[in-house]
Write a structure and sequence with these properties.
- It comes from Brachybacterium fresconis.
- There is one protein chain.
- With about 850 residues, the protein is an alpha/beta fold.
- Helices cover about 40% and strands about 15% of the residues.
- Helix 8 crosses helix 27.
- The relative contact order is 0.08.
- It binds pyridoxal-5'-phosphate.
Length: about 850
C-alpha cells in the first residue's frame, strides 16, 4: 500500500546534549580524533550509516539512546572536554598573533584579514563541494590558517550536487552518478542578517535578469567559509541551476559560476563583514583563476567612489594575490571574449550593467590574449594581482616561461611569478596510528609549528614496523570490501565473489597510486610492458601488490580509456589478487589508501604536475616516495628518503613513455623490492625503516600546510596587506602613482643606455676575486634619477650567450653624470655583463611590472 502522505520524524536533542550541535557545526571536529570518537560513541551504527556525518546523525538517533547519553556522566564529561577544547582553540592567541605585529605592520590598529576565494573546498566528505587536488589543497589551507590564527574568510560555492560518484560497468567503463546535497544534512548554516533572515546578495544579468544568491556559512575552526547558492525560489529555473554542480557544464555555465563566485563573492564578503563586525579583508587571495572577476568587481567599486580605471586597478592589484595551479595551457580557463562582453553588458557610455561603473572594454583588455578574441582567466589573474605564485619551485619556473609574454623585454627568470610549494594539513592526513608515534617521539606539542622533526629519528624499527603493518592491514581490508562491492555493482553474483575476501597480502610490498585520471598523470605507464608487470606482481618469494584509485572527468574520454585499460588488466584472474582498482576515490578512501601504501608512486609527464600532494600525505604516514622529478618532489628529492624515476630527454612521447617505464620497472625490481624484503638477524626491515625515518625527519616538516600558510603569510599576504594599506592611508597615492606611470610610459622611448664599459679588466680578462668597474651613460628622457633603477646584470653565460642566474647590482650616479658600480668576480668562468634601466616607484613590487626596460 502506498501512503497518502509522509512525515519526517527527527529526534529532538535533549538540552544536556545541545553542545553536540555546537561541536558538529564547527568543522574542527574533522581534524580532532577525540571529537570524532565522541560522535561515534553516540551511536556507532547510525554514525557509520550516515557516512560519519554528525549533522545528519543527530536527528536520526533514537530518543532512548539520546536519553541514555544525556544521563551518561562519562559521556557528558567527554563532551564538556571537547567543548572546552574547542573554545580554547578558538580563543587563544596562536602563531600569527605571536609573530605578526598588530596590523601586520600596516600601521592599522587591527590586523586586516585575507579573503580566500576558491571554486572548490575539500574539507570533509560530509561537505562534498570538491573534486580533487585543488579543493583539498584549499581545505588544508583553511585548516592550517585556522590552526595558525591567520585572520581569514573564505568564499566558495554551495553545489546542489556533490562531485560525481564513480562506479564501473562490466567492461570497466566509468559510470557517473550524482548525489544531492541537502543543506539540512550539511555542516552549514544560513548567514543571517540583523533581522534573522538569511542574507542574500544579487547580480544582474543582461536584460535586467536578477540572480539572487543566498549566503551559507560553514565554520572551519576559526575561519568562516561563505558558500554561495543560487537555488532560490526567487530565481528563474536557469539561474537556480548556476550552482548545480562542480565543473559540470559548458563554457556558458562556467562563466556564470565564476561571475557568482567573483562578483557575488565580493558582495558576500561585504555583507559578512557588516553582520560579523569584523575588519574588512584587505588582501584577496585567488586560488586559481576562477575567481578573477572578484578583481573587476573591486575595481568597479573604487570607480563608483570616484577613482579612475587606472587608479582602481593599481589599488586592487596591491591587495591581490593570485595562485596559478596548472603548467598545462589546456588547463587554463579561457572564454570567448564576446561571451563575456555580453555578460558585462555595456550601456551607452560603455559602462557595465553587471558591475556598475566598470568600463567594459578596458576591463576586457586585462584578460584578452594578444591579437585574439579569447579571454584568459590566468592572464586576468596576473593583471589584477600584483603578487602571484606557482605551487612548487619547478612550477614557478614553468609558469614564468609560460607567461613571459605578459612581461615583454624581460628574461624568463625575471618574470614576476614566485612560488609557494603546496603542503598538506598534518592532522587531517596523519593516520591515528602514526600520529600516536609522532606524539610519543615529539611530545604533545603542535608539531606543525616546529621545523625540526629530528626527534622522529628515535622511532625504532619495531615501532615503525608495527605501525606500518597496521596501516597496510587496514588498506588490505578496505580494498577487499571495495573490490567486492564494485563487482556486485558490475553485475557479479555474491556467490562468485568469495575470491575478493583473500585478495592482497597484508605483508606484501604495497604500492599505492591514486589521483585524478588525466592523461598527463600516466595511470597506465605501469602497463607499458604488461608481462614484466605481471612477473613483478606474481613473484612468489617477493610479491608486489598495487592498489589504484582515481576518477576521470566525465568529459575526458582519453582518461576514461586509460582507466578502462587498467581495470581490464586488474580483472585478469592471474593478477587480480595482486592489483586492485578501487572505485570512487575520495577523502576517506585516500586517508586509508595513502597511509597503508609502503610506496607512493607518481609518474606524470615532467613538468606537467604543478605540485601533487598525495605523495606528501604518504610521507606523513611513513610511506616512501617513488616519483618522477616533478612537482614538489623535484625540489625535495632525496635518495635517502625515496626513489626518483629519471626523465628521458627525448621529444617523442611514445619513446619517452617507454624509456621512463623501463626505468620504473628497473628501480622497482632492483632497488625497491630487494630493500623491502631485506631482513636483519632480528627479522627487521632495517634498511627500509632507515629510509622511512629519513623521510619523516627531512621531508615531513617541509610538506605541511602549516609551512605553506606561513610562507603565504610572510611572502605574499603581509607584503600585499602593506601595499594595500598604503593606498588607504594615503588617498592621493593612486592618483599620484597613475600620473607618474603615464609620465614614465610617455618618456620611456627616450630612455636608453647610450654607452657601457668595463674598467679593470686586461683585454676582457680578470682574476678570480678581483673587482671590475661598470661605467654607463644613461639617457633619462626627462625622467629624474628617482624614477629609474639603473642596474648591472651580471652572470654566467649559457651556450646561447644568454646570461643565466643574473645578479643585479645597482649603479650609482656620479657627480659627472656617469653611472658606476663595482662588481666582484668571485668565481672563474665566462661572465656576461650588461646595464639596463627599469622604472622605480614605491608602489611597484617588481621591476618587470610595467613591462618597461631599456638595455645597453
Ligand atoms: C590528496 C588528494 C588528491 C590530490 O592528489 P594529487 O597527488 O595532487 O594528484 C586528490 N583527491 C583526493 C581524494 C585526495 O585526497
Amino acid at each position: 500500500m502506498k501512503p497518502t502522505s509522509t512525515i519526517t520524524v527527527s529526534s529532538v536533542l535533549p538540552g544536556a546534549l545541545e553542545p553536540l550541535r555546537e561541536l558538529a557545526l564547527n568543522l574542527r571536529w574533522t581534524w580532532r580524533r577525540q571529537c570524532v570518537d565522541l560522535f561515534r560513541s553516540v551511536d556507532p551504527e547510525v554514525f557509520a550509516d550516515v557516512g560519519e556525518n554528525p549533522i545528519a546523525m543527530l536527528p536520526r538517533i533514537s530518543a532512548g539512546r539520546l536519553a541514555e547519553a544525556a544521563r551518561d556522566e562519562s559521556f557528558l564529561a567527554r563532551m564538556r572536554d571537547e567543548v572546552g577544547d574547542l573554545r580554547t582553540y578558538l580563543d587563544s592567541g596562536r602563531w600569527f598573533q605571536r609573530t605578526v605585529p598588530e596590523g601586520m605592520g600596516t600601521g592599522a590598529g587591527t590586523s586586516p584579514s585575507i579573503a580566500y576565494f576558491s571554486m572548490e573546498f575539500g574539507i570533509t566528505p560530509t561537505l562534498p563541494i570538491y573534486s580533487g587536488g585543488l579543493g583539498i589543497l584549499a581545505g588544508d589551507h583553511l585548516k592550517s590558517a585556522s590552526d595558525l590564527g591567520v585572520p581569514m574568510v573564505a568564499i566558495g560555492l554551495l553545489y546542489q550536487d556533490g562531485y560525481f560518484s564513480q562506479s564501473l560497468d562490466r567492461s570497466g567503463w566509468q559510470q557517473e552518478s550524482y548525489r544531492h546535497n541537502d543543506p539540512e544534512q550539511l555542516p552549514v548554516q544560513p548567514l543571517r542578517g540583523a533581522d534573522g533572515e538569511q542574507l542574500t546578495v544579487a547580480i544582474t544579468l543582461p536584460g535586467g535578469r536578477e540572480v539572487d544568491i543566498a549566503i551559507w556559512r560553514a565554520q572551519v575552526g576559526r575561519v568562516p567559509l561563505l558558500l554561495l547558492d543560487t537555488n532560490l525560489a526567487s530565481n528563474d529555473e536557469g539561474a537556480r541551476q548556476i550552482t548545480d554542480r562542480l565543473y559540470g557544464g559548458d563554457h556558458e555555465h562556467r562563466i556564470l559560476q565564476e561571475l557568482v563566485l567573483g562578483i557575488g563573492g565580493v558582495r558576500a564578503v561585504q555583507a559578512h563583514t557588516a553582520v560579523a563586525g569584523v575588519p574588512a579583508p584587505s588582501v584577496f587571495h585567488l586560488n586559481e583563476g576562477h575567481a578573477g572577476f572578484s578583481g573587476l568587481e573591486r575595481v568597479g567599486r573604487l570607480m563608483q567612489a570616484g577613482s579612475s580605471f587606472a587608479e582602481a586597478v593599481a589599488e586592487v592589484r596591491a591587495g591581490t594575490v593570485f595562485t596559478t595551479h596548472t603548467p598545462v595551457p589546456a588547463g587554463i580557463d579561457r572564454f570567448e571574449a564576446d561571451q563575456l562582453r555580453g555578460y558585462l553588458d555595456a550601456d551607452e557610455s560603455g559602462l557595465s550593467r553587471l558591475i556598475p561603473a566598470l568600463p567594459v572594454e578596458a576591463a576586457l583588455a586585462l584578460g584578452i590574449e594578444e591579437g585574439g578574441d579569447v579571454f584568459n582567466m590566468a592572464q586576468l589573474g596576473f593583471r589584477i594581482a600584483q603578487r602571484s605564485n606557482g605551487v612548487a619551485r619547478l612550477h614557478g619556473a614553468v609558469s614564468r616561461a609560460m607567461f613571459q609574454d605578459l612581461y615583454p623585454g624581460f628574461d624568463v627568470p625575471e618574470v614576476p611569478i614566485g612560488s609557494v610549494t603546496n603542503g598538506v594539513h598534518r592532522r587531517t592526513w596523519t593516520s591515528p596510528a602514526m600520529d600516536d608515534l609522532v606524539t610519543k617521539a615529539m611530545g604533545a606539542v603542535d608539531v606543525s609549528a616546529l621545523s625540526d622533526w629530528s626527534a622522529l629519528a628515535t622511532l625504532t624499527d619495531h615501532e615503525l614496523t608495527e605501525t606500518r603493518d597496521t596501516l597496510r592491514a587496514d588498506l588490505v581490508e578496505m580494498a577487499r570490501t571495495q573490490v567486492k562491492e564494485s563487482w556486485l555493482r558490475r553485475g557479479a553474483d555474491q556467490a562468485e565473489l568469495a575470491w575478493t575476501g583473500t585478495i592482497l597480502d597484508p605483508h606484501a610490498l604495497t604500492i599505492g597510486f591514486a589521483r585524478r585520471v588525466s592523461t598527463y598523470k600516466r595511470l597506465t605507464l605501469m602497463l607499458s610492458d604488461p608481462d614484466r608487470l605481471r612477473r613483478i606482481l606474481q613473484d612468489e618469494e617477493r610479491p608486489v601488490q598495487i592498489v589504484i584509485a582515481g576518477k576521470s572527468h566525465p568529459a575526458d574520454r582519453p582518461g576514461k580509456e586509460f582507466l578502462q585499460q587498467l581495470v581490464r588488466f586488474a580483472d585478469d584472474h592471474g593478477v587480480r589478487h595482486r592489483i586492485a582498482f578501487l572505485p570512487d576515490y575520495d577523502i576517506r578512501m585516500a586517508s586509508v589508501l595513502i597511509a597503508g601504501a609502503d610506496v607512493w608512486m607518481n609518474n606524470p609527464i615532467r613538468p606537467e604536475e604543478a605540485s601533487g600532494t598525495s605523495g606528501m600525505k604518504a610521507v606523513l604516514n611513513g610511506g616512501l616516495t617513488f616519483s618522477v622529478s616533478d612537482g614538489w618532489w623535484d625540489e625535495m628529492k632525496d635518495d635517502d628518503a625515496g626513489w626518483t624515476i629519471p626523465t628521458a630527454a627525448v621529444d617523442d612521447q611514445g619513446e619517452r613513455d617507454r624509456l621512463e617505464a623501463d626505468a620504473l620497472y628497473e628501480i622497482l625490481e632492483s632497488r625497491i623490492v630487494p630493500l623491502f624484503y631485506e631482513r636483519d638477524a632480528r627479522g627487521m626491515q632495517r634498511g627500509w625503516m632507515t629510509k622511512v625515518r629519513s623521510s619523516l625527519v627531512t621531508i615531513a616538516p617541509r610538506i605541511t600546510a602549516a609551512r605553506m600558510v606561513r610562507d603565504y603569510v610572510s611572502d605574499l599576504y603581509l607584503p600585499a596587506a602593506r601595499a594595500a594599506a598604503a593606498f588607504t592611508a594615503e588617498p592621493a597615492l593612486a592618483g599620484a602613482f597613475t600620473s607618474w606611470k603615464e609620465d614614465v610610459q610617455a618618456a620611456w622611448p627616450a630612455v636608453s643606455v647610450s654607452s657601457m664599459m668595463l674598467e679593470g679588466t686586461e683585454e676582457g680578462r680578470a682574476a678570480t676575486g678581483s673587482e671590475v668597474t661598470v661605467v654607463a651613460e644613461v639617457q633619462l628622457g626627462g625622467l629624474s634619477e628617482e624614477d629609474v633603477l639603473v642596474e648591472a646584470v651580471v652572470g654566467p653565460l649559457a651556450d646561447d650567450d644568454e646570461i643565466i642566474e643574473p645578479h643585479l647590482i645597482p649603479l650609482q650616479r656620479e657627480q659627472d653624470g656617469r653611472w658606476v658600480a663595482r662588481v666582484a668576480l668571485p668565481f672563474p668562468g665566462e661572465i656576461g655583463c650588461t646595464v639596463r634601466v627599469t622604472p622605480q616607484h614605491p608602489v611597484l613590487a617588481h621591476r618587470a611590472e610595467l613591462g618597461l626596460v631599456a638595455a645597453a
